[in-house]
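In practice, a research group might receive sequence data for several interacting partners and want a quick structural hypothesis before committing to experiments. The following worked case mirrors that situation: the sequences arrive first, and a predicted assembly follows.
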Amino acid sequence: MASSSSPSGSGSDLSERRGIPAAKFIQDVETYLSQSGFDSNSALAFHQERLQQYKVVEMKLLAQQRDLQAKIPDIEKCLEVVGTLETRKGTGESLLADFEVSEGIYSRACIEDTDSVCLWLGANVMLEYSCEEATALLKNNLENAKASLEVLVADLQFLRDQVTVTQVTIARIYNYDVHQRRVKQVTPSAIATADA
Amino acid sequence: MQQQGKSSGSEMEVTWEDQQNINTFSRFNNRLHELVDEIKFAKEKCDNLEDAGNELILADEEMVRFQIGEVFAHVPKDEVETRIEEMKEATIKSLEKLEQEKESLVLQMAELKKVLYAKFKDSINLEED
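A structural hypothesis for the assembly, expressed as tokens:
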């Protein structure tokens, strides 16, 4: 998570990132409008829509981020348990533990000196591993989760840059429009006074 | 935290460089919010560990139940004491790191603010609501 402190605009020159289109920076509003054939209103509508789309994607990414952020401590917990069992290994001591049978109901378990644990792999499959193998597998999972979180954070950052660009663009088009209207309003009245 | 490159009245030029500055500022601002949450969380954890440590000193049981994963393992008191101490140290360390990151972010944001306000005056608002 420390990567975000780098001030360089990472990937700002990309035209898209993982299916997210980049927002184009507009050098000059007037040329943009005349080139694209948009009037101010339709340009505004177009960018507002874009903004909404970005927001939808942001929600999705944020949900994914939350999932991953919850998953990482889970894996760390598992590693801790396997680690505890491993340190007991060979000492002959058994580990006494209170565990939850059902919500609010606890029972006591005595875990004998053991060399293996069963890992729930998902899809209704549980496999027995030796402690070393389990640790290796869990560590691997942890690394994967951290790596995908990093990618996700970078995606989010890219997305937020596009959101900012779009927001600024909207503000600029809006201001340009207001400015144009004011000019238009001033000119006829100026002519009118000149006539009178 | 809205950045609006408002070019009021006369058309104000917004260059790609300005846009990038605004992007960076926005990014820093987002990260700052995350950091504030993370720092709060780390502080809470630290307090909880502190409480647990104090509680442990008062306890006169030889074995205490120490939560590992989902289960409460029966662990000798001194072992729990060292483990809690270790956890506390790790938390304090990460807390320090977070505080440092926050400080540097605040500094960098102040720099960007200077640059952006110098260019856009009051046409831009970089303050929190």
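Before designing any experiment, note the following. The longest strand of chain B covers residues 63-68. The two ends of chain B are 7 Å apart (CA to CA).
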